[in-house]
Amino acid sequence: MEWIEVRPEVEVRAAEYQRLLGYPPEHVMDARSADLAGWAREWYAEHGRPWVYAREAGSVATDGPSVLIEGVRFPSGALRKRFEQAAADGAVLAAVSAGAEIERQAQKLWREEKPDEYYFLEVLGSAVVERLTEIAGERLCAWAESRGMAVLPHYSPGYPGWDVAQQSWLLGLLKTARSLPGNLQALESGALLPKKSLLAVFGLTRQTDGVRRLTELVACESCSLPACQYRRMTEEP
């Protein structure tokens, strides 16, 4: 399976955008903030270049504290545990990006001493990445179900128990089959360029009993950002 989509339709939910902006639930933005949020959405709708790429891995195996994906060893006890607990023997590798254009514009606004415009556009980029990841998960969930499989929630370098420096290894695997639909680099530190991007592994299992549908999971359950003031509350199932 290989999925390439350039400029997918990305409708960021108002509640998610407001959450990332730092507003509490049910908050009503004042006129200035509402104008900035509307402007950021309009700018991105015209100039944004989001993209999604995903492909099924050729081989997956667990070995000690590591997961081997197409022969590349990813030392991560957390990733291995997720695969073993779900009896996952396959994976989909994915990359999503809001595109470089939004970052260039945000930097331009900062240089022009327009911090409000910078902030609203910068945060929109984060919201777009979150929504793209959600879209990818939903699409992969439907694809897997049609084949008698279940998709595990995505996991990424930088999440608990997975060294962020391994971003470059995962990116190398993603680029093995073909060029990605947009430019994407991984620095030695693990940071991605453009930064409004995400690399992820979605485990695949045929042991579907007891595996919750991806669409029922809350994204923040896997977030590793320490002391996040915007973290959503989750309820026990």
Describe this structure in words.
The chain is α+β, with helices and mostly antiparallel strands and 237 residues long. It has one domain (2-222): NADH Oxidase, CATH 3.40.109. Helices cover 37% and strands 20% of the residues. It is built from 6 helices and 10 strands. It has helices at 14-21, 31-47, 77-85, 100-111, 115-145, 167-177; strands at residues 2-6, 51-56, 60-63, 66-69, 72-75, 88-97, 150-151, 185-186, 192-193, 197-205. Strands 1-2-6-10-7 form a 5-stranded antiparallel β-sheet. A 3-stranded antiparallel β-sheet has the order 3-4-5, covered by helices on one side. β8 and β9 form a beta hairpin. α1 (14-21) packs across α5, α2 packs across α5 and α4 runs antiparallel to α5. The longest helix has 31 residues, at 115-145. The chain is elongated and about 55 Å long. It starts with a strand and ends in a 32-residue tail after the last strand. Mean pLDDT is 88; it is low at 214-220 and 222-237.
Name its key features.
single chain; NADH Oxidase; disordered C terminus; three-stranded antiparallel β-sheet; alpha+beta; 237 residues
Number of domains: 1
- CATH topology category name: NADH Oxidase
CATH class: Alpha Beta
Mean pLDDT: 88
Largest sheet, spatial ordering of strands: 1-2-6-10-7
Short synopsis of the structure:
This protein has 6 helices and 10 strands; from the N terminus they run βααββββαβααβαβββ. The chain is α+β, with helices and mostly antiparallel strands.
Itemize the secondary structure elements and their pairings.
Layout: E1 2-6, H1 14-21, H2 31-47, E2 51-56, E3 60-63, E4 66-69, E5 72-75, H3 77-85, E6 88-97, H4 100-111, H5 115-145, E7 150-151, H6 167-177, E8 185-186, E9 192-193, E10 197-205
Antiparallel strand pairs: 1-2, 2-6, 3-4, 4-5, 6-10, 7-10, 8-9
Helix pairs in contact: 1-5, 2-5, 4-5
